[in-house]
Design a protein that fits this description.
The protein contains no helices and eleven strands. The protein is mostly beta strands.
Length: 123
């Protein structure tokens, strides 16, 4: 069983920054990702990273968001800069322990999910 606990969400004005964290109470997770879901919209993949450091980003966040991980702390991060109102959503951390990331950011690739942390960006 993999437990994931997100933190770091909050409210910020457009142009601001936030850093999300996801504590993983497990070892040897091969692929982790951040997803988000805005009200009335489907959940979308934001970014993924695997155990060898390969990353993938949605076009909407490229150049603004950075996914990273601290293996010593078993923690996943999402640094979000130049935030826009359209980034407002519930953000979820997800884990796939066994396989490397496919690059497709499909939520069906991830069997384990955190409870989510809210990010609100005002204009």
């Amino acid at each position: 069983q993999v437990q994931l606990v997100e933190s770091g969400g909050g409210s910020v004005q457009a142009g601001g920054s936030l850093r999300l964290s996801c504590a993983t109470y497990s070892y040897s997770i091969n692929c982790m990702g951040w997803f988000r879901q805005a009200p009335g919209k489907e959940r979308e993949g934001v970014a993924t990273i695997d155990s060898i450091g390969s990353t993938s980003y949605a076009d909407s966040v490229k150049g603004r968001f950075t996914i990273s991980q601290d293996n010593a702390k078993n923690t996943l991060y999402l640094q979000m800069n130049s935030l826009k109102p359209e980034d407002t959503a519930m953000y979820y951390c997800a884990a796939e322990p066994w396989n490397y990331c496919s690059g497709g950011r499909r939520e069906t690739d991830f069997p384990y999910w955190g409870q989510g942390t809210q990010v609100t960006v005002s204009s």
